[in-house]
């Protein structure tokens, strides 16, 4: 069965960095686009970043552009999110999500991980 397991969250200071990982299993990882999304306390789900199956195209929400970098290692079945210059407003539960095809279509995801908490505070 499809499993997505996020890790790497934690407490960071403003201006600091964290790298999230999402270990995928149960499907051919290299065939599907993937995304990161987040949900802050009391707010709705926000899409953060996405990447095509072969890593050829990446996309970012305006709120994270220039600070976050999405990448994938298809040999290791792992998705990453490098987060730099963190801000308190980046505090959220971060999820990875699998798209149903090799490219991204807004809002179309068929599997989600359980999330990893990121807290940015001094």
Describe the structure.
This protein has 122 residues and is an all-beta fold. The chain has strands at 3-7, 10-12, 18-25, 34-39, 45-51, 58-60, 68-73, 78-83, 92-98, 111-112, 116-120. The strands form two sheets. Strands 2, 4, 5, 6, 9, 10 and 11 form a seven-stranded mixed sheet that branches. It has a four-stranded antiparallel sheet with strand order 1-3-8-7, with no helix packed on it. A hairpin with a 4-residue loop joins β7 and β8. The chain is globular. The N and C termini lie far apart (40 Å). The mean pLDDT is 96.
Ends: how far apart? 40 Å
- Helicity range of the residues? under 10%
Main sheet makeup: 7 strands, mixed
Mean pLDDT: 96
Strand content of the residues, in percent?
Answer: over 45%
Cα gyration radius (Å): 13 Å
- Helix and strand composition category: mainly beta
Could you tell me the number of beta strands? 11
**Order of helical and strand elements:** EEEEEEEEEEE
Unreliable runs, pLDDT <50, ≥5 residues? none
Specify the overall morphology: globular
Keywords, please?
4-stranded antiparallel β-sheet, 122 residues, 7-stranded mixed β-sheet, single chain, mainly beta
């Amino acid at each position: 069965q499809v499993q997505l397991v996020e890790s790497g969250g934690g407490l960071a200071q403003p201006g600091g960095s964290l790298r999230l990982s999402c270990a995928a299993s149960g499907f051919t990882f290299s065939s599907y686009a993937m995304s990161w999304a987040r949900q802050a306390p009391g707010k709705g789900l926000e899409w953060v970043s996405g990447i095509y199956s072969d890593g050829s195209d990446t996309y970012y929400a305006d709120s994270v552009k220039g600070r976050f970098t999405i990448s994938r290692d298809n040999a290791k079945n792992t998705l990453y999110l490098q987060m730099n210059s963190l801000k308190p407003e980046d505090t959220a539960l971060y999820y990875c999500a699998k798209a149903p095809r090799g490219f991204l279509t807004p809002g179309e995801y068929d599997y989600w991980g359980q999330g990893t908490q990121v807290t940015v505070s001094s």
